[in-house]
Amino acid sequence: MVVAEDGVLFRDGLVRLLVEEGHDVVAAVGDGPALTDAIVTHRPDVAVVDVRMPPSRTDEGLRAALAARAQVPGAPVLVLSQYVETAGLDDLLADGAGAIGYLLKDRVAAVGEFLDGLRRVAGGGTVLDPAVIAELLASRRTPPALSAREREVLALMAEGLSNTAIQRRLVLSAGAVEKHIGNIFAKLGLPPDHDQHRRVLAVLAYLNG
C-alpha cells in the first residue's frame, strides 16, 4: 500500500492505522511526483491519496494519481479530500477501469467505513462519498427524468451499496430495488449488467445528462 499526504501528522496517523489493521505500507510520500513514482515502482494493492499536495497544493495528488494510472492501468486509488471538491471527478473515472474511491477525510475517523471503502477499491470497485454525491446531485439544473425514489436509489448506488443494502436503507423489497435500478439504467441509456462500476457510470450519466 502507498500513502500520499503532505501533512506529516495525518500521514503518520494514517500509516499507523493501516499497519495496525494488517496492511503493509511500502511507501509514505508527501508530494505528487513521489506518489507517481511510488505507484509505478511498487504497484501497490491500493494507494491512499490526498487531493491537495505540493508542489501546486491544488489538485496535485489527483493529477499524480491520474499520471500513475496512465502508466499502470487500473492501479487502485482511494482519493481523500478535506472538502467536497467535484472538479476532476470525471477525469478520475473516465478510463472505466474502476478501482477508484473518492472520500472526505472525515471518513478516516469512522474507521470501519474507511476500511470498507479501502477494501472495495482494492478489489476493483468504485466508491464515492455520500457528501460528494449529494453536492453533485444538488448542482444539477436540468436532471434527466428520474423519479424521486430513483434518485434516492441512484445516490445509494453511488455510495457503493449493494441491492440488499439499498433494500434495508429504503425499506424496499428486492424486486422493487431491481425494478428501480433497471429503470435508472434504461432512462440513462446504460444496459444493465453485473459490473459494479456500471452503477457509478449511471451516476455520471445522470450528472452529465
UniProtKB/TrEMBL annotation:
<dbReference type="InterPro" id="IPR058245">
    <property type="entry name" value="NreC/VraR/RcsB-like_REC"/>
</dbReference>
<keyword id="KW-0597">Phosphoprotein</keyword>
<keyword id="KW-0805">Transcription regulation</keyword>
<feature type="modified residue" description="4-aspartylphosphate">
    <location>
        <position position="50"/>
    </location>
</feature>
<dbReference type="Pfam" id="PF00196">
    <property type="entry name" value="GerE"/>
</dbReference>
<dbReference type="InterPro" id="IPR016032">
    <property type="entry name" value="Sig_transdc_resp-reg_C-effctor"/>
</dbReference>
<keyword id="KW-0238">DNA-binding</keyword>
<dbReference type="InterPro" id="IPR001789">
    <property type="entry name" value="Sig_transdc_resp-reg_receiver"/>
</dbReference>
<dbReference type="InterPro" id="IPR011006">
    <property type="entry name" value="CheY-like_superfamily"/>
</dbReference>
<protein>
    <submittedName>
        <fullName>Response regulator transcription factor</fullName>
    </submittedName>
</protein>
<dbReference type="InterPro" id="IPR039420">
    <property type="entry name" value="WalR-like"/>
</dbReference>
<keyword id="KW-0804">Transcription</keyword>
<feature type="domain" description="HTH luxR-type">
    <location>
        <begin position="139"/>
        <end position="209"/>
    </location>
</feature>
<feature type="domain" description="Response regulatory">
    <location>
        <begin position="1"/>
        <end position="120"/>
    </location>
</feature>
<dbReference type="InterPro" id="IPR000792">
    <property type="entry name" value="Tscrpt_reg_LuxR_C"/>
</dbReference>
<dbReference type="Pfam" id="PF00072">
    <property type="entry name" value="Response_reg"/>
</dbReference>
